[in-house]
Specification:
The complex is a heterodimer of chains A (451) and B (234). Chain A is of the alpha/beta class and 451 residues long. Chain A has 12 helices and 24 strands. A 6-stranded mixed sheet of chain A has the order 4-3-2-8-19-18, with helices on one face. Chain A has a 4-stranded antiparallel sheet with strand order 1-24-21-20, sandwiched between helices. Chain B has a domain at 21-109 and 167-227. The chains are: A alpha/beta (451), B mainly beta (234).
Chain lengths: 451, 234
C-alpha cells in the first residue's frame, strides 16, 4: 500500500526537523568566528605535494557521499575545474547500509570494497590523503597535515559529530568512555565494527538503542537497527530484548511500518519507549537515565544528538545561532554568508533535509552545478534533492519499507520549508523492497566510485 | 548534430534503411549496428504477433553483455520525439514497429545508477499490470531508487531521480514473415560506461572480452521471468 504523505505527518516531521535544524539560521551572522576569515591554525607555508592547478582549483574536503558526488560532478559540469578531494581516511566504508551487516545480510566488503583512488582516476580529480587542520579564507588557503592547498573554491563536507552535552554527558572523560564503550554507530567505520561484534556476542539481557531528538543522521536508522538486532536475537534464540529509548513522542519516519514490525515480528523482543530522552549515562554501572526513569543495560548503542561536524566549528564556518551547530551558509546558494568561495554541503548543512545518503548524493549534483555556474559568474535556480531511503525491518526473510521524499522552499524562496507534496511513504514491508535496499546502496557506490 | 563526433559504435552506417523515408530525418542519430534477428529461446523465429502484453522480453544487443527489453505496448502507439541523454547527446527515439506500431525496445540499464537485469535478479522491470511504485500500468520501473519510465513515450522519465530516458533500440519489422530484427541503438558512450562499471561481473558471466562482442546474426528474446530468477515486484 502506498500512503501519500499526509499533512499531519508532514507538519509533525518537518516541525521537528525544522526546529532542530534551522534554529537561528535566518539570522545574520554576527559576533561569530565568521567575523574573521582565519581559523585557529594558520597557513604553514609548506605547500602540499600537488601539481600546479590547470584551471580554477576546487578543493573538496570530505570523501563521504556529499564530497565524492561533488568532486565527480563538478568536474563533469565544468571540466576546467582542477579538483582535489581531501580525505583523512585511507580506506572507505559507508555508514549507509551498515545496519544490514549486523544481521548478516551483507558483509563488510559490501560496505568497504570501494577505492578513493579509483573514484579519482575514473573521474579526473586528485585524491589527497590528508587531515584538515585550518583555513585561511583571506589568502584562500586550506591547511592540512600534509601542507597548504590554495583554492579558488572550497567545499567542506565533513558530515556530523555527536553532541553528548545534549544527553546530559558533559564531562569529557565520560564522553570519551561513552563514545568508545557504547558507540552510536552513525559516524565512523570503526564504530560499525565494534557494534557488529557486540551484537554477535550478545548472550542475553537488555540491549539499549537510543534515538535522539532533533534532525539526526538517518531518521529511520535507529529503528532499523533495533529490527536488525531483534532479528539476530530471534534467529539465535537469545533471551534478550532491544529497549528503544526514543526521545521523540512518535517514531520519526515510516512510523506505521516500524510499529508493524515491532508488533508483528518482534513482540517481546523490541520494547519501544517514546518520550524517553536520555538525560545521563553512568558508563561504569551501565545505567541510562531519562527524565523520569533509569534503565540498567547489558550492552548498548547510545546515539547522542547530532550536530554539524566539529570541523565546521574549528574552521569558523559554524552558525553560532544554529541549534545543531551547523554551517552558516545560504540555503539556496550553499556558500558561506559573506564568502562566495567557501561552501558547506552534506550533513553539516543547516537545511532541514533528512540526513540520508540519497539526499547528499542528489544534493551534491545540484551543488556541483552551483559551483560550475559560480566559476563562470552565473547563478542557477534551486532544485530539490530527493530522499529515497529503504529501511530493512526483517532479516529473515529480508523485508523493508521505504520513503520517497522531496522538498519545497518557503514562501520567500530563501530557505527549505518542508516536504514536497509528492512525498510518499511505503510502510508495507515486503521482500521486493528488501532486495531493492541492497541495490539502492550498490547504485550509490557506483555513482561515487566509478565513472 | 556534429557528425564528426559521432564515432561509429558498431560497423555499418547511420541507420536509415530499416526505417521509412518519412522518419529518416528524425532517426538519424540512431547508430546502425549489425542487424540481429530476434529468435525464441530454442532458436526458432520470434513472431511479432506472438509477443504478449504481460512482460518484457529480454534480448542482448548490440553486444552480448547489453540487455534490452522488447515491449508490446498493446493499444498504445509509440511515436518518435526529441530526447536528451546524459552520455550520448540529443536524439529522436524510433517509433514503434509492427502491424500496430506498438512494439518498442530499450537498453535495459537504468540511466541513473545503472541497475540492470541479470540471470539472478532484475531490479529494472516492465510492469504491465501496474505496481506500487509506478501507481499505474505499463511503466518500466527501477526498484533501486524508484525511477519510472514510460515506454510509450520513448521511455522518458515520468518520475524519480533518473536523469535521462532509457536508451532506445531500433527495430525493423518484416511484415512478410512477421519477424523482428534489432538494427541500431543510441548509447555508445553509455554502454562504454556500463562496461567500465561492471567489467568484473560481465567477465565472470560471459568470459573475458565476450561481453563486448557483437551478438551475431540472431539474438534470443526471453521473457524476463525466465531470464531472471528473481523479479522483485516493487
Amino acid at each position: 500500500m502506498t500512503d501519500n504523505f499526509n499533512r499531519r505527518n508532514f507538519l509533525k516531521l518537518s516541525g521537528a526537523m525544522l526546529a532542530a535544524g534551522t534554529a537561528g539560521c535566518a539570522a545574520g551572522v554576527t559576533g561569530s568566528a565568521l567575523a574573521g576569515s582565519q581559523s585557529a591554525a594558520v597557513a604553514t607555508g609548506l605547500k602540499a605535494a600537488l601539481p600546479k592547478a590547470k584551471g580554477p582549483r576546487l578543493v573538496v574536503v570530505g570523501g563521504g557521499t556529499s564530497g565524492l558526488t561533488i568532486a565527480k560532478y563538478a568536474k563533469k559540469e565544468y571540466p576546467k575545474f582542477d579538483v582535489v578531494l581531501v580525505e583523512k581516511r585511507d580506506m572507505y566504508a559507508s555508514c549507509f547500509n551498515s545496519n544490514m551487516w549486523y544481521a548478516g545480510l551483507i558483509d563488510l566488503e559490501f560496505l568497504a570494497n570501494h577505492s578513493f583512488m579509483d573514484a579519482a582516476v575514473e573521474n579526473g580529480y586528485i585524491y589527497f590523503n590528508a587531515t584538515v587542520i585550518g583555513l585561511d579564507r583571506a589568502s584562500r588557503t586550506l591547511v592540512t597535515n600534509e601542507g597548504d592547498i590554495g583554492y579558488d573554491f572550497l567545499v567542506v563536507a565533513p558530515g556530523i559529530s555527536y553532541d553528548y552535552d545534549k544527553i546530559g554527558v558533559s564531562d569529557v572523560g565520560a564522553q570519551v568512555a561513552l563514545r568508545q564503550k557504547y558507540p552510536g554507530g552513525f559516524t565512523s567505520p570503526t564504530e560499525h565494527v565494534t557494534l557488529n561484534r557486540k551484537i554477535r556476542e550478545f548472550e542475553g539481557g537488555t540491549f539499549v538503542q537510543t534515538v535522539p531528538n532533533g534532525n539526526y543522521r538517518c531518521l529511520p536508522g535507529p529503528y532499523e537497527r533495533a529490527c536488525m538486532i531483534a532479528s539476530v536475537f530471534k534467529k539465535n534464540k537469545i533471551k534478550g530484548k532491544v529497549l528503544v529509548l526514543d526521545a521523540n513522542p512518535e517514531i520519526t519516519i515510516k512510523a506505521k511500518g516500524f510499529h508493524a514490525a515491532f508488533d508483528e515480528l518482534f513482540k517481546g523482543i523490541v520494547e519501544w519507549k517514546p518520550n524517553s530522552a536520555v538525560t545521563g549515562v553512568d558508563v561504569d554501572k551501565r545505567v541510562i537515565k531519562t527524565e523520569f526513569d533509569s534503565y540498567s543495560f547489558d550492552d548498548a548503542a547510545i546515539y547522542a544528538n547530532v550536530r554539524g561536524s566539529t570541523l565546521i566549528e574549528h574552521l569558523g564556518l559554524m552558525d553560532p545561532a544554529s541549534g545543531q551547530k551547523e554551517a552558516a551558509i545560504d540555503q539556496i546558494r550553499y556558500s558561506l554568508k559573506g564568502d562566495d568561495h567557501v561552501f558547506v554541503s552534506g550533513d553539516s548543512r543547516p537545511h532541514p533535509y533528512s540526513k540520508s545518503a540519497n539526499t547528499s548524493n542528489t544534493e551534491g549534483k545540484y551543488v556541483a552545478k552551483v559551483l560550475a555556474a559560480r566559476a563562470q559568474g552565473k547563478e542557477i535556480a534551486w532544485t530539490s534533492p530527493r530522499t529515497v531511503c529503504y529501511s530493512m525491518v526483517n532479516a529473515d526473510p529480508m523485508e523493508a519499507i521505504s520513503v520517497d521524499a522531496g522538498y519545497v522552499l518557503n514562501k520567500e524562496g530563501t530557505a527549505v520549508g518542508g516536504f514536497s507534496p509528492d512525498t510518499k511513504m511505503f510502510d508495507n514491508r515486503d521482500g521486493a523492497k528488501g532486495k531493492a535496499a541492497l541495490e539502492w546502496a550498490r547504485g550509490i557506490y557506483r555513482d561515487l566510485f566509478a565513472a | 548534430m556534429d557528425r564528426r563526433g559521432f564515432v561509429k559504435l558498431c560497423t555499418g552506417t547511420v541507420l536509415t534503411a530499416a526505417l521509412s523515408q518519412s522518419l529518416r530525418a528524425q532517426a538519424e542519430q540512431i547508430e546502425a549496428c549489425p542487424s540481429a534477428k530476434l529468435v525464441k529461446a530454442d532458436g526458432s523465429p520470434l513472431k511479432a504477433s506472438e509477443i504478449g502484453l504481460g512482460e518484457a522480453l529480454v534480448f542482448a544487443y548490440p553486444f552480448n553483455g547489453v540487455p534490452c527489453y522488447l515491449i508490446n505496448l498493446g493499444n498504445h502507439t509509440a511515436h518518435s520525439q526529441a530526447m536528451d541523454s546524459t552520455d550520448d547527446g540529443v536524439y529522436s527515439n524510433p517509433p514503434g514497429v509492427g502491424k500496430n506500431n506498438n512494439l518498442v525496445a530499450f537498453i535495459a540499464i537504468c540511466t541513473h545508477q545503472l541497475s540492470y537485469p541479470t540471470p539472478e535478479i532484475a531490479y529494472l522491470r516492465y510492469a504491465h499490470e501496474g505496481s506500487e511504485l509506478a501507481g499505474k500500468p505499463d511503466r518500466i520501473i527501477c526498484c533501486a531508487h524508484g525511477s519510472i519510465f514510460d515506454p510509450a513515450e520513448g521511455a522518458r522519465v515520468e518520475s524519480g531521480v533518473a536523469p535521462a530516458p532509457l536508451l532506445p533500440v531500433a527495430l525493423a519489422y518484416d511484415a512478410a514473415t512477421d519477424s523482428l530484427s534489432a538494427t541500431g541503438i543510441v548509447g555508445k558512450a553509455f554502454i562504454k560506461r556500463f562496461f567500465k562499471n561492471f567489467k568484473g561481473e560481465l567477465m565472470e558471466r560471459f568470459g573475458p572480452g565476450v561481453y563486448r562482442q557483437n551478438v551475431g546474426e540472431t539474438t534470443k528474446a526471453i521473457p524476463l521471468s525466465q531470464y531472471s530468477k528473481d523479479v522483485p515486484a516493487c
